[in-house]
């Protein structure tokens, strides 16, 4: 399910710091005075990044953003952490072969570099009133899924299945104690995976209706959606299920996931 929020606007922010979170995940922390009115509690919400070209002067880029130019590369990402007191946002980028404008920007980002941020958009979360919870996410969706997990009630129970590229991509997630996190390694992200579907099928389902969060590569998500709706009989209107990306397809001013 998606909860609406307000405060959507475009801001010019700067890089506070950037560092590798895991071998295949890179975190960039953004800050600036324009975060002063960024709504709180937006972890897992999507934002649009307006990405400068390599070597583009910050002043020229800022003018384009302020003018609402459509000639700027835009990509959809997730608010992983927001620290209002420090005026900081953490954005996590999957590091992958061939990169892409946003990934390339993140890898070369240095303190003081600028970027445009529009949003936030809808928060991604399952129904908090569910009997138990079931999450499925690949690396591209882990930032949103992890943030949604951390926002669950502390007495929440269930399972989160996270698909990563290597064992070293396991990262801390402050989920409620009753949520069991399972890490599955899928070494080749260029091949659609069925591991999460197989795990869902083998899972000993708890009584009651689960709150579902499923996101990631479109082929894998399609299989999970079919299983949950057609075989388990769950109501698609009460689940968050979204294809964030497709193998071989590059996002071009894409809609938010």
TrEMBL record:
It holds the Pfam family SIP. Residues 8-127 form the FAD-binding FR-type domain. It comes from the Bacteria. Signal peptide: none annotated. SUPFAM superfamilies: Riboflavin synthase domain-like. Belongs to the SIP oxidoreductase family. This is Siderophore-interacting protein.
């Amino acid at each position: 399910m998606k909860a609406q929020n307000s405060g959507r606007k475009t801001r010019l922010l700067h890089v506070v710091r950037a560092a590798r979170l895991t071998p295949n995940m890179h975190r960039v922390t953004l800050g600036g005075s324009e975060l002063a009115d960024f709504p709180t509690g937006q972890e897992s919400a999507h934002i649009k990044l307006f990405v400068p070209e390599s070597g583009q002067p910050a002043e020229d880029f800022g003018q384009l953003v302020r003018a609402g130019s459509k000639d700027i590369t835009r990509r959809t990402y997730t608010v992983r952490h927001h620290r209002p007191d420090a005026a900081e946002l953490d954005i996590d980028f999957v590091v992958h072969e061939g990169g892409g404008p946003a990934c390339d920007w993140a890898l070369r980002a240095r303190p003081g570099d600028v970027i445009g941020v529009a949003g936030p958009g809808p928060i991604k979360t399952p129904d908090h009133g569910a009997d138990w919870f079931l999450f499925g996410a690949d690396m591209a969706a882990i930032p949103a899924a992890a943030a949604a997990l951390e926002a669950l009630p502390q007495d929440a129970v269930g399972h989160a299945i996270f698909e990563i590229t290597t064992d070293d991509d396991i990262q801390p997630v402050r989920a409620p104690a009753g949520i069991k996190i399972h890490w599955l390694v899928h070494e080749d992200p260029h091949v659609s995976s069925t591991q999460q579907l197989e795990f869902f099928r083998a899972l000993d389902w708890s009584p009651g209706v689960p709150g579902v969060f499923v996101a990631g590569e479109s082929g894998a998500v399609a299989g999970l959606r079919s299983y949950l709706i057609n075989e388990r009989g769950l109501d698609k209107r009460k689940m968050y299920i979204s294809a964030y990306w497709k193998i071989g397809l590059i996002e071009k001013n894409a809609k938010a996931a």
